[in-house]
Specification:
Layout: H1 23-205, E1 210-220, E2 223-233
């Protein structure tokens, strides 16, 4: 910064040549003029110095004020920057925390939903499995009862068939025995008749000879045993 000092220096010198007798007065005046000039010069120097000092002080004060203002502005700017940065950091941290909380809540909800679905599916599967097992057991029991009934019916039928077969066989055997007995009786009767006829014929032809013919017939079941005894007297 430039400093301009404006001042007026006035020096007045009076030399009297008109009155030579007043040398002492002239000397005194000269001395006074010189003193005044010196005083004026000193005052001028002091004023100049004062003005320069004032200007320097003003310049220093201006510089200090400017520096202070710059420092204050820089400090304010730094503080503003720090505050802005802190606010941005806080906002980012809050946003991240909010995002994390939202994500965690969504994850928890999804996990809970999955667990609920799994539990529901498991319960449904258990009910279906239990129903299937119950149905299978019921079907098995019904099948067992039906099989037992069928086996019992078959056994009953078999026993009835066996009894009927046995009865038929017994009837056939009885019929056969009766038929055999009747046949044997007829054969025995014919034999007896034949023997009687033979005896009568023999008695007539041979007087001295006596023929006794006895036929004993015994029939048991299908077997016939015949015993004949002939006695002859001479």
């Amino acid at each position: 910064m430039g400093t301009t000092i404006t001042g007026t220096v006035t020096a007045t010198t009076t030399i009297s040549t008109t009155v030579p007798t007043t040398s002492a007065t002239t000397t005194a005046a000269t001395t006074a003029a010189a003193t005044t000039a010196a005083t004026t010069s000193a005052a001028t120097t002091a004023a100049t110095t004062s003005a320069a000092t004032t200007a320097a002080t003003t310049a220093a004060a201006t510089t200090a004020a400017t520096t202070s203002a710059a420092t204050t502005a820089a400090t304010t700017s730094a503080a503003t920057t720090a505050a802005t940065t802190a606010a941005a950091t806080t906002a980012a941290t809050t946003a991240a925390a909010t995002t994390a909380a939202t994500t965690a809540a969504a994850t928890t909800a999804a996990t809970t939903a999955a667990a609920t679905t799994a539990a529901t599916t498991s319960a449904t599967t258990t009910v279906a499995t239990t129903s299937a097992v119950t149905t299978a057991a019921t079907t098995s029991a019904t099948t067992t009862v039906a099989t037992t009934a069928a086996v019992t019916t078959a056994a009953t039928t078999s026993a009835a068939t066996t009894a009927a077969t046995t009865a038929a066989a017994t009837t056939a055997a009885t019929t056969s025995a009766a038929t055999t007995a009747a046949t044997t009786s007829a054969t025995t009767t014919a034999a007896t008749t034949s023997a009687a006829s033979t005896a009568a014929t023999t008695s007539a032809a041979t007087t001295a000879a006596t023929t006794v013919s006895t036929t004993v017939a015994t029939t048991t079941g299908a077997t016939t045993t015949g015993i004949g005894v002939i006695c002859k007297n001479v």
